[in-house]
Amino acid sequence: MAIFKIIVLLLSLFCFCQTQLSPTFYDQSCPNALSTIRSSIRTAISRERRMAASLIRLHFHDCFVNGCDASVMLVATPTMESERDSVANFQSARGFEVIDQAKSAVESVCPGVVSCADIIAVAARDASEYVGGPRYAVKVGRRDSTTAFRAIADSGDLPSFRARLDDLSDLFLRKGLNTRDLVALSGYHTLGQATCVTFKERLYDNSSDIDAGFSSTRKRRCAVNDGDTNLAPLDQVTPNSFDNNYYRNLMQKKGLLASDQVLFGSGASTDSIVSEYSRNPSRFASDYAAAMIKMGDIQTLTGSAGQIPENLHCC
């Protein structure tokens, strides 16, 4: 009986280990998986620098809607609405084809082994590193959802560009992320661009939380009744480099989106974190990497849950 209990315990431990995310998950089953993804992502960003921000955002939008399960990649069918068509993603989420290209490249090396959810997570890391961000060990071993969650995406699980600090804090807390995680992850807005419609009202409402000169400059491309689809860099100084200018901008009331500027200036606990990151880029990089790893653990599918897509694409 004792021997039987030991065997059961060992088997249960073995199963537990096999279903946990780990940076070494593919070391035996597909040893070239991460390097293949990395090469594909670097090629894509070398063609379009803005893609780095888009791939990081794609990982964020995947994880915050029912977990990091690649459900954001699924296209609509007669019986399923797509997360791509949600308010936060429609005509703004980008990078789907880049993930598909990486999936195809991996499939040519190890067919039917690597999930799209893992490719999205690794792509986000490789994207930030390529433009100057930190390199960190991505945990892999996720499996993919068989369905999308449009209703959840539209119910507030993806933050609005108008979100208040309390709303952002509550949302991140529901996902298991604390205030420091919120401020660190928001720092990826040191990259990328936003359409005028997402920040125009800040330029014309005479708000006290935006620098007058900064507002005047942005009005040139965002007229009151025109230019909603025009793009503006989130960081006007170094828009294509992963650095800590985002936090310096916030301290100068030069946060482009209202949901960015709320992190500084209200006297909340986020003020001190923004100030810290503006002075200490190494601390920001370290905390960002830790928060990305933490975010990548949200509601993952492992073991026999979900699927590994059998075709060459993620969508």
Automatic annotation (TrEMBL):
Protein family: Belongs to the peroxidase family. Classical plant (class III) peroxidase subfamily.
Annotated positions binding Ca(2+) 1: D62, V65, G67, D69, S71, E83
SUPFAM superfamilies with a match to the protein in the record: Heme-dependent peroxidases (SSF48113)
Signal peptide span: 1-19
Cellular location(s): Secreted; Vacuole
Keywords on record: Calcium, Disulfide bond, Glycoprotein, Heme, Hydrogen peroxide, Iron, Metal-binding, Oxidoreductase, Peroxidase, Secreted, Signal
Keyword Metal-binding: yes
Gene Ontology biological-process entries: hydrogen peroxide catabolic process; response to oxidative stress
Annotated active site: H61
Domain Plant heme peroxidase family profile: 20-308
Recorded GO CC terms: extracellular region; vacuole
UniProt binding sites for substrate: P159
Coarse class of the protein's main subcellular location: secreted
The protein's role, per its UniProt record: Removal of H(2)O(2), oxidation of toxic reductants, biosynthesis and degradation of lignin, suberization, auxin catabolism, response to environmental stresses such as wounding, pathogen attack and oxidative stress. These functions might be dependent on each isozyme/isoform in each plant tissue.
Cofactor annotation comment: Binds 1 heme b (iron(II)-protoporphyrin IX) group per subunit.
Residues given in the record as heme b binding sites: H189
Site label Transition state stabilizer, positions: R57
Positions of disulphide bridges: C30-C110, C63-C68, C196-C222
Reactions this protein catalyses: 2 a phenolic donor + H2O2 = 2 a phenolic radical donor + 2 H2O
Pfam families: peroxidase
Cofactors: heme b; Ca(2+)
Name under which the protein is recorded: Peroxidase
Molecular function (Gene Ontology), one example: heme binding
Superkingdom of source: Eukaryota
Alphabetized PANTHER family for the sequence: PEROXIDASE 4, PEROXIDASE 72-RELATED
